[in-house]
Design brief:
Helix content is about 70%, strand content about 0%. It has about 425 residues and is mostly helical. It has a domain of about 220 residues.
Length: about 425
Amino acid sequence: MTEIINIFFILFTFLALSAFPLNIYNQKFTHSIGVISIFDLVTLNLLLNIFALFVISFIVIDYSKIYISLLFFSISTNLFYFFSKKKYFKFFLNKEFIFFILISFIIFSSIARSPILSWDGIENWFFKAQFFFYNYNFFDLRESRGINYYPHLGTFLWGFFWKNSILQYEYTGRLIYIYIFLLSIFSISDLLYKNNFIKLFFSFFTILLCFDNFLFSGYQEVLLFSFLIFLSKYIYIYFLNEKRLILLVCFLILNLIPWIKNEGYLFVIIFTLSLSLLIGHFKIKKDILIFILFSWTLLIVKNFIFYKFLSFNPAHMGSLIFSFNFFDIFNLVFLIIQGLVIAFFKYKIWLLIIGSFIFYRNYNFSTKQKFFIKFLKINLIFYLLLIFVIYFSVINDFRGLNWWIDNSLDRLLYGISGFFIIQIILVTKYYKNYNLK
């Protein structure tokens, strides 16, 4: 019974913090940036809170006091709106959002029944979360067990919600990963706009294809997957309307990704390079240039902080000094292709992504949508090149290429897949002849 109460409490916490700054939004604001659904508002609110917690992670402070303050402010402001605007809470009482809460509770309960941690979760991520549980901050991570140059945002969220749960069981901190995972899928399903049944079916089907209990046992790929879904959705909206506020949302999401996992900085480079190749298609080129410039600046700042206070290893056990022959290259290509095929069938969402890129030519997309699909294709090419470069860098490692590919390629592809699910959305929409918003 206490476990159920604990799950209800942590779910209430996530929902409350997602609604915390809701009062700053109004119809004029939401229509001006093209987002009006409940999942858009919850996503934007949650991202703002995650950014606030990210900043707090660098400060010596009692995280429980921060939690209580955020929760109190959220409840008080929402109660104020409840009594002042009668239609306020009706906004939340729609079938999709209720289904989202129900699915969240079911999966939370499943994790609670078997709260196992994986090897990597224990060796490299658990102890960072534990540091934050005991009120340490980013600069104390040099003393933590595991690889200290791993980014900390995911483990800070883990430790923060672990500390601020009723029972203070470790797994309650990891439930935020599930919440963000589900929110990202329901949020992008909103692009199927007209038909609620299609949106619910797509959300449920995507969850079935993408939910991997093993990855929820301490791995950070789930957060990469979810943040890339958020990024793909809002950059798509930007391609359609070129609103600066939407680009700002994209900037926030993109520049939190390198603080989740090390390869996040490579994702930033790919995203900004892809934008730069298409900059001539945008009406306001200055905004894109500023976006790229500031993203690269923040990458430099992030790497400097790690170099100065923890340690810095952008290659992560790879090498920039190579000694190889043509047989090694042939073997590398063969093993990568083999690993890709295995990973595609393990995470079958990739089969749908590949199919959606093959068959999209049969549909009459608008000029802006074709422009966006071109952007996705450029990103996909860069990601394939990135996979080759990553494993080329460990070609001489004593563990061997087989070990590296068997233990990491599927997880790498899982995270990347989040960025391309929107292509399935676009093809599904045109197959059923529904209008995007």
